[in-house]
Predict the structure.
Amino acid sequence: MRHLLSAKDLSHDEAVLVLDTAAQMAATQAREIKKLPTLRGRTVVNLFFEDSTRTRISFETAAKRLSADVLNFSAKGSSVSKGESLKDTAQTLQAMGADAVVVRHQSSGAPHRLAHAGWIDCPVINAGDGTHQHPTQSLLDAFTIRRHLAGGAGDLAGLHVTIVGDVLHSRVARSNVELLTTLGARVTLVAPPTLLPVGVESWPATTSYHLDDAVADRPDAVMMLRVQRERMSSAGGGFFPSGLEYSRLYGLDQRRLDALPDHTIVMHPGPMNRGLEISAAAADSPRSVVVEQVANGVAVRMAVLYLLLAGAQATAPADDETRVLA
């Protein structure tokens, strides 16, 4: 694995390897001393052309826990705002000695271009590009599902995950459909017709327009997606009549929460629009793993950085290695 640009890039065995490595990284984070010297002397650049809180801080924390030096680059206030191209920015970072570049960009395909145009010679990790992909989010979601529903080992064979909401604008949905099916899970997408992308019938998932029917199908995990108003042409954008109507038809409220099987977990990539796609009762219920997803993101991103920068043999760190490193 040279880069991580898309969830589709990961084979079954590679995905399981990342999850297994993340489990070992998570174990080290329960210790008093959380820092590992694995990437000491390496430099990780967070190259963010879009606003981010969770993802940027998560990658920064992951790199620092592995003892890497971290450079945070924001397009605002940089030469990008003066018209500097992605190519020139990338080559500047290469000249500064970047060993890995984590990139978030508003244009779909920008990380792929960065990785394959020959501008830089280091691993590129996609931290979200347009409405295209967000592979580390799907990995942390799979990691969370595995811990709760699959005993924390192996793949997700036999599990049923329902993804609800703004699929059209969601890179999280695209990445999750690809990764979860690679790991053996069955995926159902639930959304109004206006929020399903053209060609969704070719995705390896079933679709439904009715959340109550999906709840009755007894999913093991329900992932609520944020309504991305900023990617719509205007407030609501004509994609649904009103927030109240959307919440009534596609929101996870107390009634639907009570109708789910007792073991079903509730997920959300954040940030949440409380009262729109998810009620406060559902977001704060004991079966909600939203906060845990954030914590798991650090372990997963530690695993990705480790495998790309230190794991040339594509193997998880041995137990004695993580013991010594701590």
In short: The chain has two domains: 7-134+297-325, 135-292. DSSP finds twelve helices and nine strands in the chain. The two ends are 25 Å apart (CA to CA). Residues 167 and 173 are 6 Å apart (CA to CA).
